[in-house]
Amino acid sequence: MFAVVFPGQGAQAVGMAGDFQERFAVSRQAFEEASDATGLALGRIVAEGPESELRRTEITQPAILTASIAMYRALEPTLPQPPVAFAGHSLGEYSALVAAGALSLGDAARLVRRRGALMQEAVPEGAGEMAAILGPASDEVARVCAGIDGAVAPANFNAPTQTVIAGASAAVQAACEALRAAGARVMKLDVSAPFHCELMRSAMEKLAPLLAETAFRDARIPVISNVSAAAYTKASEAQMLLRDQVCAPVRWVECVQGLVARGARVQLEVGPGKVLSGLAGRIDKGLGRANVASVADLDGARAALAQVSA
Length: 310
Prior knowledge:
By secondary structure, this protein is of the alpha/beta class. It has helices spanning about 20-25, 25-40, 40-50, 50-55, 55-75, 90-100, 105-120, 140-145, 170-180, 200-210, 235-245, 250-260, 275-285, 300-310; strands at about 1-5, 85-90, 130-135, 150-160, 160-170, 185-190, 225, 230, 265-270, 290. The protein has two domains: about 1-120 and about 200-310, Malonyl-Coenzyme A Acyl Carrier Protein, domain 2 (3-Layer(aba) Sandwich), CATH 3.40.366.10; about 130-190, Alpha-Beta Plaits.
């Protein structure tokens, strides 16, 4: 048995899913559907860039979503069996819901375009930061953040010894200094806003009515929530959890553990990049990994899944 996961913001690259658009009609149709829904020329932007345009959060989010679903739609008919569950990192949870039949691609693309714009607007440029902390356990990172004067807290629990923090710039810098002094490796992230922290509250409040008026359906296959790390299928749960996700930390370690608990022996990452595959190896060394980021990856992914589906 296997589970499918989808990447979040930061995985974007000019040219992503280009080979899928060239080869598969369903992939081209995915880009057409999302472009019609958002009014963005996503196929052109993804294929040609420039990178500066693709990096704009309100474009990045629908672009990654669409590229991921374009790849999944090409792969899905050849899967040996349905996945036991879906999950996605932050933005990727929207891709998971589309793949699970809970949300149309057009509605998801509209939502994440607005989500990206609201997140960007929530904090003035330069007022917030994010940083990856490597080395200490997540509870130690949380303890240090709690002792800092100002808004800073864990935003992504990505691996047992990799936690991303987010908040006001001065507070993040102070936390980084304290953690570095304690032996941690610290990497400032090149992001446009401090996601998944309390500073995103205005974005959460503005996104809530948009989620409430969107036509969600019950998912055909369970999706693991970033917020609760629990599986859900109900449309009402999806709306609530996506609202809360804007401010809540991404509990990715527990999400992957939840996939394993549901019987997944392989994690299949579908979408640009291989970040989630790398994290899976640090979360559970016994979990097999496969990824589809290009057409050339399809045969290897199918072979890996066939071994655990026999």
